Amino acid sequence: MVSDNRTWVHPNAIRRGEKYESGRYLHYFRHWHSFTMKMDDYRFIRWVASHNTNNRNDDPAFDTAAKKLSEQGWEALSREEQEAFAEHQVKYIGAETPQDGVILEGWGRLEGGLGEVTITAFAVDNDPHWRSSKFDDDYEKTFRKVRVTVLSAAEEHPGALWVWGESMREYKDDDMMGDEDVLCAQFYMLPEKLKALAREVAAQPARPTLTLHAQGLTFQDEVEASLSEPWHPHEYVIIYDHHHQAILNSIRFEIQAQSTPASPPPGTDDDAAVTSPQVRFAPTAPAAAPVSDAVAKNLRGVKYALWILAAAIMLAAVIR
After folding, report:
1. Residue range 274-287, pLDDT digits in tens
2. Do 76 and 167 have their domain in common?
3. The domain containing residue 66 runs over which residues?
4. Residues 242 and 168 in one domain
């Protein structure tokens, strides 16, 4: 990857390198790219909500009172206008949406098919959206580890990919992130789906690996993009200090077979029997009932009679 002379052209293109003799530049072009994240280190957080405040509400009575207040002062307001002004902020209160949900958070690793997948963040010249207090035109870091968060939301909508770096730490201190730059991926899912996922994962005999399939609106070098074979490595690019839209396609895990506790063998005390959950007892044929002395004596008599009959038949055949 050429890392010098990267210049923002428009939202879908970054020019890189020097102009070729043909008069053409090479570019990174922005498209939707698919990537996979494997998660072994994760947790589910259950939450319930009550109320929130939202100051984006229409209140014509307040607007009238506020305008009059700015022009004539408090005393000029009628009693109704004073009440409308005083109660306006109370109207911010509303029910939180959704009322309950689950958060999935943890660490994932980027994986591709046969080839390696990485995401690189770098700074570009002429960036119109740079938000940090200082511009680091040499910034470039490549990530395979991702901080993944899936939030419950009343409506599923796109999430984002971004780097938690110096510009983020200037405004918020997050001990969980530490001092190193971190690639973050945040997605949204309906609460019912996340709650069902949390229940099913908790019901597994062992903690499964979660596989997240996602897509990000990221850049890729046009030369590399032309190498479409599955064993080729792919490096997707995001601009440092930007949020790139991303969507979650699916979350998958392998359902592990549940073993059925076996019944104790005949004659075993149920309370004392200890069986491994992995052991199944093979079915056995019922034991034959014991034979009484009288029945045994009768059987011997029948046997002797059969021998005498067989001898008589043979003797008759010889005489004849």
Report:
1. 333 333 333 433 44
2. no
3. 51-95
4. yes
pLDDT in tens, 288-318: 445 455 545 555 555 555 555 555 555 454 4
Residue 79 has pLDDT above 90, yes or no: yes
**Residues 87, 234: one domain?**
no
Is the pLDDT assigned to residue 241 strictly greater than 90?
A: no
Separation CA 198–CA 204 (nearest Å): 10
Q: Are residues 139 and 248 in the same domain?
A: yes
pLDDT at 182: 94
Percent of the chain with pLDDT over 90: 50
pLDDT tens by residue, 206-222: 999 999 999 999 999 99
